[in-house]
Structure prediction request, 329 residues.
Amino acid sequence: MLIVENKKKINKKIRKAKTVFIMAHKDLDLDALGSSIGMYVILKHKRKNCFLVIDDKTHELGVEKVLKELDGCVNIIKSKDVSKNMHPIESKNLLLILDTAKKDLVQSSDILKLFTNKMIFDHHGKGKTTIKDAFLIQDDKVSSTCEMITNLIEAYDIEIDPYYATILLSGIVLDTNNFTLKTTADTYYAAYYLASLGASAKKVQYLLKQDLLEYTEREKLLTKIEIIDKKIAISKASASTVYRREDLAKVADTLLFFNDIEASFVIGKIGKTTVGISARSLGNYDISKILDKLGGGGDDYNGAVKFEKKTISKVEELLKKEIKNQEGE
Prediction:
């Protein structure tokens, strides 16, 4: 476990800081939020002044539930308020980035330049926009960033509240699609460890409950599937519907449950002029190579890419071209 191997270096950086800011990727999911809260608990245990930086205006259902239940329990600020909460000595500030290492995906790329001390914990692969001036713990063999933080909590022997353990467990369940993807013996052990701290499986299911209308909208994507080479599933959304990135990701996850499907790509609008692709793999098909060629990134199991001012049909054309190129290599 890479994060445990570096626990002394991590602790040294935290010990030197007086004020710590925690920031994850845009469009928070339960892995990003869960790992952020887990890190917040570690920092509080070490008596650090710390803040969660969240700029998202809307949240997916599980994240919304957690933020409401934690209202008043954690210090949450907007990125515009970071500078006024920083320690007057620049070297005493630390920015912790969780569940992404890419400067274009963080809640606010503007605040990156405010910090000389940055540390990143991420379970995705490196990409073109990976932040370079930071101490980086990037382990793409781990199921989730929540698993990484759980390992750190155990390594530091910190007792955490059962509710926080539950949020961490929900992040693991989410990113493994209920322990069906990217799951190792270490993942099961992390879940066991959180359960020993009082994590509630029933509460996890509550946090993962879905909105019926959103679910119905996602199901429409399963009616437009094309199979390439009997192992790659491509789903294309209607141009009239705008989806959240996590909606495309959930459909991509679902496609992997069909017989013979090794990889899935789901194309849809994620903004007024933005088209996204969410990709998933069982680990036997190199989706990251395709996504890199298209300007995105990922690892052996998941990844994504987005395009500005391109039609869904054009994006589909580009995707199929890269799939064909890979098949020919």
Remarks:
- The first helix runs from residue 2 to 5.
- Residues 239 and 269 are 7 Å apart (CA to CA).
